[in-house]
Amino acid sequence: MSRVLIRVFWLMLISGLSLQGCAPPKPVRLGAPIEGYSHTSAAIHRFSVNGAGGPNLAPYGYGGGQMCCASLPVKWHPGLTVVVEWEKDPDPYDSVNWPDPPFSDAWRKAAKEHEAHYTRHRAVVPVARYERLGVVNVHFLPCNQVAVTAGLMMPGTPKYPYHFPQKMQEPATCPES
To answer: Which of 33, 78, 121, 123 is 20 to 30 A off residue 46, Cα-Cα?
Structure first.
């Protein structure tokens, strides 16, 4: 009978160890939705965070809704950065001067000439400290500066790490980066 008990013990031990492999590991990274805020007079036609797209932003505008998803660590760590890339239209209201009718050959030519003035940018940006991963908020600031948060706090709340005015003016000259 002791041999039977020993076999049962070993079978239970082996079964228990093999079941431990069935439990999914806790995620190290998760996809977080992306929102944007333009604090300048330029329109942001497209932007991305670590390659994941964000919504279009009107001048001095918020959002356009959340887009999915930037992969970030569940736990913040010192030195955490993201790569933000964006396309900026420095004169978003110029289309009022384009020829009528819309989508005519003359209108398309004006649009193409306008698009030639878009600028493209890329920045490696530190992510503000967060306790729990939430929405990735990207703030576009004068002089092609960017600030990023990724926590549960929303802009305008006291614990939010940044308190930028919604409308910021470009200085006459920008500092060299």
So the answer is: 78
